[in-house]
Amino acid sequence: MIEKMAEAGCKKIAVGVETLDKRANRELKKFNDLEDYKNKVRNMFKICNKYNIEIKPLLMMGIKGQSKENVLASLKFLASIGARNVRIAAYSPRQILTEMDSKGTLTLKHINAMDKMTYIDYMPESMDEFTFLNLIYNTKNYVELL
Q1: Which of 7, 46, 62, 108 is the most buried (most CB within 10 A)?
Q2: How far apart (Å, rounded) are the C-alpha atoms in residues 54 and 50?
Q3: Does residue 61 contact residue 20 with C-beta atoms inside 8 Å?
Q4: Which residues constitute the domain of residue 73?
Q5: What total of structural domains would you count in the chain?
Q6: What predicted TM-score, i.e. pTM, was given to this entire model?
Q7: What is the 3-state secondary structure (H, E, C) of 35-92?
Q8: What would the pLDDT profile of 85-100 be if each residue is shown by its tens digit?
Q9: Measured over all CA atoms, what is the biggest interatomic distance in the chain, rounded to whole angstroms?
Q10: CB neighbours of 130 closer than 8 A, spacing ≥ 6?
């Protein structure tokens, strides 16, 4: 598929990596084998490089179980395999919204209240507010934190 995308003129794709942390990954219930997933991400970069397609990885921050150290380890891993432009977004605390929805109490007002400042309540362990906000608002400078 990447070859066909390159033939059609594709130069860049965004890919939701979400998290490369074992504890946070268990919270999302996404991947059984995190090392296998990291190998797949590595391979994706290799294939895209072959066809001159840049990958913009999308990394979520604030998932239960994450810490400052494992967020920075994820960024280092992505940089080591060729990521030049990572977009970091604050993770929406979906467990809260899901619980409210199952009780029938979720409203648009609740959803709209979940802005980036609300997410400070869900910062990774040991991360300070400055680092958290700098990563989600000024992601081009994440390299300075490595």
Answers
A1: 62
A2: 10
A3: no
A4: 2-91+123-141
A5: 1
A6: 0.76
A7: HHHHHHHHHHHHHHHHCCCEEEEEEEECCCCCEHHHHHHHHHHHHHCCCCCCEEEECC
A8: 888 887 766 667 778 8
A9: 49
A10: none
